[in-house]
Amino acid sequence: DTGVSQNPRHKITKRGQNVTFRCDPISEHNRLYWYRQTLGQGPEFLTYFQNEAQLEKSRLLSDRFSAERPKGSFSTLEIQRTEQGDSAMYLCASGTGSSYTGELFFGEGSRLTVL
Amino acid sequence: AQSVAQPEDQVNVAEGNPLTVKCTYSVSGNPYLFWYVQYPNRGLQFLLKYITGDNLVKGSYGFEAEFNKSQTSFHLKKPSALVSDSALYFCAVRIRAGGNNRLAFGKGNQVVVIP
Prior knowledge:
The complex is a heterodimer of chains A (115) and B (115).
Chain A: E1 5-7, E2 10-13, E3 19-24, E4 31-37, E5 44-50, E6 53-57, E7 65-68, E8 75-79, E9 88-95, E10 105-106, E11 110-114
Parallel strand pairs in A: 2-11
Antiparallel strand pairs in A: 1-3, 3-8, 4-5, 4-9, 5-6, 7-8, 9-10, 9-11
Chain B: E1 3-5, E2 10-14, E3 19-21, E4 24-26, E5 33-38, E6 45-50, E7 56-58, E8 64-68, E9 73-78, E10 87-97, E11 100-105, E12 109-114
Parallel strand pairs in B: 2-12
Antiparallel strand pairs in B: 1-4, 3-9, 5-6, 5-10, 7-8, 8-9, 10-11, 10-12
C-alpha cells in the first residue's frame, strides 16, 4: 500500500501524559498537512509543511503541540500534557506541487482518547 | 472569513433517486472548491474539484458538482444514488494565507441511501 500511513491508529492515554503520532506521506509528496477532526465537525487545519519547513501553524496549535518533519519525509505530531479536550481524530494528508490545485491524500487518522 | 457551509446535517435518499448535497462558499477572489468523501473507518478521499472553466465538473464514482457564482454554491450531485454511496461528504475551499495554501472544510453531511 503506497498511501498515507498513520500510527498508531488509536491511542488511549491519561490526562497529563505526552503522546506522539507519526505520519508517513506518499513518497515524493512535498506538502504535508495535519488536521484535527472531532465528532460532527469537519477537519480543522493544524499545521503545514513544505518539505522539511513548517510554513504555517493554526492558532489551534497551542504551545503543548509540536510538529516536525525532519528530512522532509515522515512527520510527527506531539501533544504534551494532554487534556481531555485534545480527544479527537488527528489526520495527516500529503500532496504534490507548490501551488494548490491538486488533491490531498489523507491517511486513516490517529484517534486520541484522553481519560 | 473564507469558509464553506453545509447547511444540512443528514441527507436521506432512496436508492436509485437523485442525490444532492449542498454547499455554499464565502471567499474573496476566485474560489477553488473541492468535495471529499469519508467512508467508515477510511481516510478522506478526493471526489472532484472546481478551479476554473466549465461550471459542471465531473468526478469519481459518478459524482458531479455545479459551480454557481451568483448563488455562491457548489452542490454535489449524483443522478442515481447507490447504497454504497452512504458516507460522510465534505465540501472544502482553498484558503490562501501568507503565500501558503490549505483547505478549509465544512462540517460535513451524512448521506444515507435507503435500499
